[in-house]
Amino acid sequence: SAGSDTDQVIIPNIPMIAAMAKLKNSSSLIKIALLSILQVFNQKPFVKLSVKKILWGYHNPLIKLGNDILPRDERFPFDKFGILIGKNGSTSGKFKIHSGVDNLSNLGEIMSFRGKDKLDVWSGDQCNAIRGTDGTIFPPGFAKNKTLYVFSPDLCQSLPLVFEKEIITNDIPGYRYIPPSNVFSGPAKNPRNKCFCDEKNKCMAQDGLMNISPCQYNSPIIISWPHFYQANPNLLNEVEGLNPESRKTSVLHRHSTETRKWLARR
Predict the structure, then answer these.
(1) DSSP 3-state percent helix, strand, coil across the chain (nearest 5)
(2) Residue 173: half-sphere exposure toward Cβ, Cα within 13 Å
(3) How far is CA 258 from CA 10, 97, 102, 119, 217, in A?
(4) Among 1, 84, 178, 222, which is most exposed with the fewest C-beta within 10 angstroms?
(5) What is the DSSP string of 106-148?
(6) Which residues have CB under 8 Å from 241's CB, separation 6+?
(7) Which among 224, 229, 221 has a CA at the least distance from the CA of 246?
(8) DSSP-assigned letter for residue 152
(9) Is 234 helix (H, G, I), strand (E, B) or coil?
(10) Would you say 133 and 150 are in contact if contact means Cβ atoms under 8 Å apart?
(11) Cβ contacts of 45 within 8 Å, gap of 6 or more
């Protein structure tokens, strides 16, 4: 970006929205109390902040209040709120991976994450399965039509990548992998995604969007590929300036067909 991290941007007040979403099914008395708290803390639906604060954190009194009264396993693990807080070089958890010593085809495969061989976030074993690698290394010599999996702790799921086409970058031949078009589709188009939905975590009505609230401290977080790539075209009508091109917005892997080394990842 050509902008500065001091640029001021207006964004939704995510801590406020998260608090309201968490208590949406509470009694009227609790809701009235929450409204009083929001007024005392001068909370508004939108806030104007610098890009630096949005990304790396700013103090919001709702974070401290939540961490004071919520059960330990539901608390936000920082005293500030930021989109990328805790991501600047810090680990998201300990991985145990295959070394490939006994079987090179298992090189980089994740055996466990944070001491567990599967997640306990979603309503089904398939969605909770930890598959593939962390995206930094893959086993050599696989067939290009093999589906690859990259586990993302931030999304609490393993994302598939499929071969798109052969490419040449700086005279080096390789493969380009992209996510299948139904990765973020509802169960009607992708039955495998059914276990990402339940009574509390509703499936999205539009293809190309996924509700990952259970993965993000039950905050109302919905994800898509950049620029609504592979999403319902109707979504593009709601936002100006989007350009959902595969080359620019997809998850991208380039693999040298000669050296079997992974050259790039986006």
Answers:
(1) 25, 25, 50
(2) 6
(3) 48, 25, 23, 36, 44
(4) 1
(5) GTT-EEEETTBSB-SSSSSHHHHB--SB-SS---SS--TTSPE
(6) none
(7) 229
(8) E
(9) helix
(10) yes
(11) 12, 13, 16, 17
Quick one: tokens of 108?
């980089």
CA 88 to chain centre: 16
CA pair distance 75, 81, nearest whole angstrom: 12
**Beta strand 262-265 with 157-169: parallel, antiparallel or unpaired?**
unpaired
Give 173: exposed, middle or buried? Use CB within 10 Å, 0-12, 13-18, 19+: middle
Residue with tokens 């944070």: 114
In order, the DSSP letters of 205-227 are SSTT-EE-GGGTTT---EE-SGG
DSSP 27: -
Radius of gyration of the chain measured on its C-alpha atoms = 21
**Side chain identity, residue 224:** S
